[in-house]
Design a protein that fits this description.
Number of strands: 4
Order of helices and strands: HHHEEHEEHHH
Distance between the termini: 35 Å
Helix content: 40-55%
Largest sheet: 4 strands, mixed
Strand content: 5-15%
Number of helices: 7
Structural class: alpha+beta
Shape: globular
Length: 208
Amino acid sequence: MTRSILFFLVLFSTTFVLGQNFDELNEKLTNQRFETVRTLLDYRFKGGSGEFERVFFKHVNYTEAARKNCVVGTVVVTFTVSCDNEISELKLRNPMHYGLNEEIQKFIEATEGMWNTCQDEKYTRFEVPMLFTLKGTETNARGFITLVGENPGFLCRSDSYFMERFEKYSRKGKSKKALDMLDQLMRRDPYNNSFYELKSELLSGEAK
């Protein structure tokens, strides 16, 4: 076996292991994040996390405009519910637009009066990832709550589509197009650290 072949085998093996480690770490952190959200909702929301989810599905619809434009992504919803049950500081990180932000706001407002009182301010801050995806769309993203809408009559682009094009544009030195593809993946899975690593590497290469 020549040295060059051995080198590429070692490189491939290292990349494969690093990829596995990233996936395993991301899965672990996601599970921990969801468990934290569930525990907090079980304590503060009347009926617990299951009732919180039921109210979500009652009030939130996948808008027609979002479906037709294949809008898929995870909105990170942060808000505060004081110990005397006042809802405030609602913010949407990674907003989806096409009417979905308004649907989420309507839902949060609908929970008024459904919260338990508390004695400690550490139980007042919430961060809930809400995934909007369409039937038949391949994505590795996960949400604490996931709303699956009907596809618009055709299959929307998969995670693999954007990753393949990110790699293609990166190889060709088309950094702007590569970043556009990566942004699509980050919109779907904003907690995935591997995407931020790839973006940092790409931007570092541009700076050299």
